[in-house]
Amino acid sequence: MNKGDLISKIAENANMTKAQATEALNTVLDSIGTALKEGDKVTLIGFGTFSVSEREARTGRNPQTGATINISAKKVVKFKPGKELSDSVN
Questions:
Q1: Backbone dihedral region of 57: left (phi > 0), alpha (psi from -120 to 50 degrees) or beta?
Q2: Cα(58)–Cα(4) distance, rounded to whole angstroms?
Q3: Contact 50, 79 (CB under 8 A)
Q4: Whose CB among 21, 39, 44, 85 lies 3.0–4.6 Å from 10's, allowing a Cys bridge?
Q5: Are 69 and 62 in contact (CB under 8 A)?
Q6: Confidence band of 88 (pLDDT split at 50, 70, 90)
Q7: Whole-number Å distance between alpha carbons of 58 and 47
Q8: CA 79, CA 11: separation in Å to the nearest integer?
Q9: What is the set of domains in the chain, with CATH numbers?
Q10: DSSP-derived pairing of the beta strands 74-81 and 48-55
Q11: Residue 90: pLDDT above 90?
């Protein structure tokens, strides 16, 4: 399922137009992104938790040449699924 499929499903299930569903989905995704940028965790009970963690700088290797390269530190988004989501998949 891609974003367009999700928008169609939201519009169908919530009795709204695709434009309204698009706006609703974009608002949710923007809100999650903003909260993560501010360093907050986003917990959706039953679905899961989004969080940001720091990845340390490290040394890596170019697989084609074998040359050593430096990989800079960065922030990464993590997702831990909730129990209901995990149970629904199994």
A1: beta
A2: 38
A3: yes
A4: 21
A5: yes
A6: very high
A7: 33
A8: 26
A9: 3-83 (4.10.520.10)
A10: antiparallel
A11: no
Pairing of the two strands 58-61 and 48-55:
unpaired
Q: Are residues 16 and 9 in contact, defined by beta-carbon separation less than 8 angstroms?
A: no
Considering the entire predicted model, what is its pTM?
0.79
DSSP for the chain reads --HHHHHHHHHHHTT--HHHHHHHHHHHHHHHHHHHHTT--EEETTTEEEEEEEE--EEEE-TTT--EEEE--EEEEEEEE-HHHHHHH-
